[in-house]
TrEMBL record:
Entry keyword annotation includes Nucleotide-binding: no
Gene Ontology molecular function: oxidoreductase activity
UniProt-listed InterPro entries: NAD(P)-bd_dom_sf, SDR_DHRS6-like, SDR_fam
Domain of life: Bacteria
CDD domains in the record: Lin1944_like_SDR_c
Organism: Streptomyces iranensis
Keyword Oxidoreductase (UniProt): yes
Protein's recorded name: NAD(P)-dependent dehydrogenase (Short-subunit alcohol dehydrogenase family)
Family named by the database record: Belongs to the short-chain dehydrogenases/reductases (SDR) family.
UniProt keywords, alphabetically: Oxidoreductase
């Protein structure tokens, strides 16, 4: 398959790049400052340009989406807007604009995260963004068939516990290899409208 991988330079993105290539897929990487294609997907016009440069695709995989983590009283209107633009609207545009560029039975796999189902201190903006993406996935699946759409919602990565574990006390973790397998399930499988929780 020809797969467009968004956020390939990140912790998860690097693992996905390796995993998908090892499974025989052709991966075209996208990032703001690195990758085969360099675009900022918080800008819809750059999303348009990215698809024009990418060519025909079988799958679009997103491993990107930034949200601010702050105590609720400190979250400003700009923070809420940033969370929504960085994780929700950017991924919605990825799907909306991608529909004519992805094969008839191709797929989209988006990224959410554990704050959408297990709130943590300082994670209100992340909870909002993740919940919105998951609701969008379920709604979009009804409309875009036979194209498919799913989301992967991982816990904190085991490999990232030294940096982020304190924000998720007692919640465990998930290995990057397991998260990558959920993406494989979404890309190569037949399910749609699913949220793969890890």
């Amino acid at each position: 398959m020809n797969i467009l991988l968004i956020g390939a330079a990140g912790t998860l993105g690097r693992t996905l790049d390796t995993t998908l290539r090892e499974r025989g897929h052709r991966v075209l990487t996208v990032g703001r400052t690195s990758g085969d294609l360099r675009y900022d997907l918080t800008d819809p016009e750059q999303t348009t340009a990215m698809y024009e440069a990418a060519g025909p695709l079988d799958a679009v995989v997103s491993a990107a989406g930034e949200v601010p983590y702050k105590p609720l009283p400190e979250l400003t209107p700009a923070d809420w807007s940033s969370a929504f633009t960085g994780k929700v609207l950017s991924q919605i545009e990825l799907v909306r604009q991608g529909l004519p560029h992805v094969a008839e039975r191709g797929s989209f796999t988006l990224i959410t995260g554990i704050p959408g189902r297990e709130p943590v201190r300082t994670g209100a903006a992340a909870a909002l963004a993740n919940g919105a993406v998951e609701a969008f996935v379920r709604a979009a699946a009804v409309e875009i068939a036979p194209q498919r759409i799913n989301a992967v919602s991982p816990n904190v990565f085991t490999e990232s516990l030294p940096d982020f574990g304190e924000y998720f006390p007692g919640m465990g973790s998930v290995d990057l290899t397991d998260v990558a397998q959920a993406y494989v399930r979404s890309v190569e499988g037949a399910q749609t409208g699913r949220i793969y929780e890890l």
